[in-house]
Structures are given as C-alpha cells and as structure tokens.
Amino acid sequence: AVPLVVAISTSLSASKGLLIRNRTAFENSRKISVLAFDKTGTLTKGNFAVSRYDALSDEYEKDDILKLAGALESKSEHPLATGIMQKIKELNLDVKEADDFNSISGKGIEGKVGNKNVKVVSPGYLKENNIEIPENEEENQQETVIYVLVDDKAAGVIALADEIRPESHKAISTLKENGIKVIMMTGDNEKVAKAVSDELQLDDYFAGILPDQKLEKVKELQDKGEFVAMTGDGINDAPALATANVGIAVGSGTDVAAETADIILVNSNPQDIASLITFGKATYRKMI
Ligand code: ADP
Ligand code: MG
C-alpha cells in the first residue's frame, strides 16, 4: 500500500502549495479548532510600498529620514525593509551602510550610521520607552508606521501600505464553514490589524504583540481546550510554532521556522491551508 503521508502529499502537492513534514501533522489537521494566522505575507501580500515619509525634527530633511532608515534596512530581510529600499532606489538616494547592526525582536532594528545611534522601530517601542512624537502624528489611517530615532529621539516617520491577498477571503470563509475559529496575531499596529480583521471578518485578532506573547496566546487557547494551528515566518515565531498543535511555517520564511514546523506553506497562500483541512476531513470520513 502507498503510505498515507505519501498519498496525501501527492494529492495536495497538485496545488504545489504544501509540504507536510510528518504524518501526525496531517492527521491532526482535522482536529484543528482555532487557526491563528500571522498577517504580513500570509493574509496580506507582504509587498509594502512607502506611502508617506517625513522628518519630525528640524535637524533633518525629509530625504535624510529615508537615508538613515536605508542604512539599516539594507541589512534587514523584513518585508518593510524591502519596501523602504525600493523607495530609496526609485529616488536614487545615496545610502551608507550601518555598523553594529542588530535586530530588536518584534520591534525593529538598530545600528550606527557614522557617529549616530539609529533605530527604526514600531509605535509600541516608542510607548514603552516614553519617546515623544509631535501630536497628531499618530492619527494615520490603516498604514504600518515606523519611526526613525537618532540617539533615542524621534527624527522621522515612514508609513507603508500593504494589500490583502485576494485568496484570503475565500480561505477564511472556507475555514469558518468548517467550524474553525480564525484569528490573527501580528506585531503590527492596532489600526492596521483592525482593518484587516474587519475586511476578512476574522473571529478575533491580537495586535502589537511580541514573538513570546504569541507563544503565550497559543498556550492560553490550549488551556481553554482548543486545538491550535498557527502560521509564522520568523526565527521569532519558532517557539510558538513548536508549541502549537499544528505549526505551519510560511514558505518565504527562515529555515529555523521551517525546521520547527509540521507543515510548510510553500506559496504563503492561506487557501492551501483551507484545502488541507477540508481534504483532511474528507479523507478521514472515507476511512471510517
Ligand atoms: P509581524 O510579522 O507579526 O508583523 P514582526 O515581528 O515581523 O511582526 O515586526 C513587528 C513590528 O516591528 C513591525 O510592524 C515593525 O513596526 C517593527 N519592525 C520589525 N522589523 C523591522 C524592520 N526591519 N524595520 C522597521 N521596523 C521593523
Ligand atoms: Mg514577521
């Protein structure tokens, strides 16, 4: 007989969207009661484009903000970094390379540009560290907003916009029809998260959360008796993926995430997860 895993992998790989790393992962897929998606690159396209940027201090010109950010972002692989580097290329700006580059997990990046200590960070980072920004700056629409800090003072702001994947609508409705609660966990800000959640009619969402908080959420849900599947892409997400009952690494993500996961979502397409679950349920119905 053809082993179950092989048979399944062959059927599902008709869509070429899924790599199933173990048999239990497939067997477990029919038990999933909650599916927690990450946002960027899975429910959305992950193609950020700069929609607005500005200096927040008299010491800088508008373009200096992109240059400072670019010095750091040229060393980052985050989708936000790609969007910023694209804008820099379009404007033909000259960008230095930062030294002592580091990432601040779930919050941004930091490094030295000449003699300046520069950070590019989330709004949450500003709040935690009581860093002030001009009033009314926060009243953005549904954009992802990041701040450029020089020596821990706000120097400028960059806003970027992403788009929801067209396939996400169908995927979410299929999952819900199958009795699965669909939620989203994202490090991005509340406004963006709410807009995506409303548009896709998610059951719930958690915004501005850090990687270790994702792990806590997974555990909380499990304590309530839920059987949790989670998607994730970063090194950051590996502990939460390992704890989830079904960990799904998103294809373009890092190898570490892929190694911890039960399933790899090769094309980052949420529709492939919906197919896996409906296929799983149908297969087991036939077997009993
Ligand atoms: P998620 O994948 O859930 O959106 P991340 O952990 O990748 O979350 O990022 C969370 C937040 O940290 C981003 O929304 C952004 O504000 C900030 N951040 C992370 N990496 C970068 C980066 N390279 N440049 C600027 N901001 C970043
Ligand atoms: Mg991420």
From TrEMBL:
Q: Name one GO biological process term.
A: copper ion export
List GO molecular-function terms, semicolon-separated.
Answer: ATP binding; ATP hydrolysis activity; copper ion binding; P-type divalent copper transporter activity
Q: Which organism is it from?
A: Marinilabilia rubra
What is the protein's name according to its record? Heavy metal translocating P-type ATPase
Name the family the entry cites: Belongs to the cation transport ATPase (P-type) (TC 3.A.3) family. Type IB subfamily.
Q: Mind listing the UniProt keywords for this protein, alphabetically? A: ATP-binding, Cell membrane, Ion transport, Magnesium, Membrane, Metal-binding, Nucleotide-binding, Phosphoprotein, Translocase, Transmembrane, Transmembrane helix, Transport
Gene Ontology CC: one annotated term: plasma membrane
What is the superkingdom listed in this entry's lineage? Answer: Bacteria
Give its localization. Cell membrane
Which stretch of the intact protein is present? 370 to 657 of 713
